[in-house]
Task: structure prediction
Amino acid sequence: MNGFDMHYFERYRYVVGMDEAGRGPIAGPVFSAAVFVSNLDEMRFVCEVGADSKSLNEKERERRYRLITENLIFVSSYVSAEDIDLYNIFKATQMSMLSNYEKLFSIGREGYVIVDGKNFKFPFRNECIIKGDQKSSIIGAASIIAKYERDAYMIKLSGKYPQYSFERHKGYPTKIHEQMVKKHGIFNEFRITFDPVRTLIVSGQIIADRSEFSAQRLLRIGM
Result:
């Protein structure tokens, strides 16, 4: 078993691993997930299937997602592109993670939280771990859920807006995505405070339909 995780399990017994997906894209929400482990059998299981989601291909990530969600208690949340623009990506990620803990609390599943990242501030017992998704199988399991569910959201969005090919790049600022933004413009799922979107708007290279964005969001980029 993962000795890193066992340290927390032996000390706290009830452990929650938490991670996010989608901090870097220029479109779509940021997702996060939390996985709850309460006994040795669950610990053994999560150590077998938990892994950094970035290290897995889509097929393997989906396989492990099914295993995790069918065998462990988990929750997930997301925060919209609008709130990312209004509060910034760090605060939006923190909001999503706080929502996860509140969901676990509501069903009586509290535990010591280990979370991938740094500088998060939460009103519950927790520890931020840099590269936690690589060190902890529990955090890795949460990363798989967050990544899989965010990708599913972007694939569904692609069905509504096929001109952006979200199913290919999932909203990340690839060259082809930037070309599509210049060609088709943007809508409310785009993060207008993120570059290159912000620069393209401010420089007049793309037009932001004001009816798609709240006045508060537009104000954040000086419009």
